[in-house]
Specification:
The protein is of the alpha/beta class. It has 2 domains: 190 residues, FAD/NAD(P)-binding domain, CATH 3.50.50.60; 178 residues, 2-Layer Sandwich (D-Amino Acid Oxidase, Chain A, domain 2). The strands form 3 sheets. Strands 3, 4, 5, 11, 12, 13, 14, 15 and 18 form a 9-stranded mixed β-sheet that branches. Strands 6-2-1-10-17-16 form a 6-stranded mixed β-sheet. The chain has a 3-stranded antiparallel β-sheet with strand order 7-8-9. Helix 2 runs parallel beside helix 4, helix 2 crosses helix 8 and helix 3 runs parallel beside helix 8. The longest helix has 21 residues. The protein is globular.
């Protein structure tokens, strides 16, 4: 019998969702280490465009696996939300940590390999064909016949595309640059401050500009970018490059001086498709948060839900995964994606400047209400949104 036929589960994608799935399987039963394989077309450490924020939600998933955030990171102790002349802040120690995805994903892959998981890197999947009792996976090197395939291969998921498995245009957009900085001259580093600037909502941006303090090979840089959720796809597209250019100019930076990178994000829809017999999706392939574009923490949580579904499927010998959607919606972390999807569709629905400004004035009350209704939605100790500045224009 070939090695390929011995694999019960093949996970496509060695990012946080795929590796979290493997780690949770091995945690459930160490014998899974010999039954699960992770495939990735790239080789770690590989570049990955991402703001890199890991919230308390993600840290909780890692703690459940007996892990803590070991790769280099910058703790953010204050998040500032800006809308025009209105500035609000939320504090904790930390609110989240900023990592580099190449370093974080590489570290997570090493943790999985250290627990016996087979991670095959530099091996792209060429075909995915479901059959009645198994799935045929053809890569550049081998053919596998697992009982279960997990598509954890990002927003551009090959698994989803190969199966012509598309349930709507839920595509957010993201542009990013890295600007070298002198850490002791920037309060973002000295005080641990991250910025989400929603001011361009009135110009049609369904999202925000961000400033995150970060480290690249130990050197301080600001991770700056623009996120456009497109939660309301019927509305006109914002000119992202122009939005980013103007935001950088306000910070005495010239967009032309930096390497510009961008990619799409597939966002979550509670009514979307997450599974068919023998195949499930996880992480960005299943959908990210359309409100803030948060991906890492939810990807880690997807791994927990996917592993539980797989364990139960093998225990019952039922690989239909008919209840996988319900598992996602009932998961203590992933259940927040439904609320964030609703919030994004409401927040980006309105065109009236007066109404949008009024909603921002109510922001502290909205946050308090969310903290009272569902505390986990704001995973910090201090759930107050404090008005920092409200000077008249």
């Amino acid at each position: 019998m070939s090695q390929a036929s011995l694999m019960d589960v093949v996970i496509v994608g060695a990012g946080p969702a795929g590796l979290s799935t493997a780690l949770h399987l091995v945690q459930a039963d160490p014998s899974w280490a010999g039954r699960v394989m992770v495939l990735d077309k790239a080789v770690h450490p590989r570049e990955k465009l991402c703001g890199g924020g890991i919230t308390r939600l993600g840290e909780d998933v890692l703690k459940g696996l007996g892990l803590s955030v070991e790769p280099p990171h910058v703790p953010v102790r204050e998040i500032r939300f800006i809308f025009g002349n209105q500035v609000y802040a939320i504090h904790d120690d930390p609110v989240f940590r900023v990592v580099r995805r190449d370093e974080f994903d590489h570290w997570l892959a090493l943790q999985a390999e250290g627990r016996g998981v087979i991670v095959r890197q530099g091996e792209a999947v060429k075909a995915v064909t479901p059959h009645a009792d198994y799935v045929e996976i053809i890569t550049e090197q081998m053919t596998f016949y697992p009982k279960v395939v997990v598509g954890a291969d990002g927003s551009r998921s090959f698994v989803r595309q190969a199966l012509k498995w598309d349930d709507g245009q839920r595509i957010a957009r993201l542009l990013e640059v890295l600007t070298p900085e002198v850490a002791n001259e920037r309060e973002e580093f000295c005080k641990g401050v991250a910025v989400f600037d929603f001011s361009r909502m009135l110009a049609g941006l369904q999202g925000y500009y961000w400033d995150f303090p970060s480290l690249v090979e130990g050197q301080p840089v600001m991770n700056r970018g623009v996120f456009d959720s497109r939660a309301r796809p019927e509305r006109s597209r914002a000119a992202l490059k122009q939005v980013l250019r103007e935001a950088l100019a306000k910070r005495n930076r010239n967009l032309a001086d930096y390497g510009l990178k961008g990619h799409p994000l597939h966002w979550f829809d509670p009514h979307g498709r997450f599974a068919i017999p023998h195949i499930i999706l996880a992480g960005d392939a299943a959908g990210v948060d359309p409100m803030l574009g948060e991906g890492i923490s939810f990807a880690l949580a997807y791994g927990e839900a996917a592993a539980a579904a797989i364990v139960d499927a093998f225990a019952c010998q039922n690989f239909g995964f008919a209840d996988y959607r319900e598992r996602i919606l009932a998961h203590p972390i992933l259940s927040q994606l439904r609320l964030r999807t609703i919030a994004a569709r409401i927040a980006y629905r309105f065109k009236s400047p007066r109404l949008v400004r009024w909603l921002w004035q109510l922001a502290p009350l909205i946050v308090r209400g969310m903290a009272w209704y569902k505390p986990d939605c704001i995973p910090v100790n201090d759930r107050r949104l404090i008005r920092v500045n409200n000077e008249p224009e």
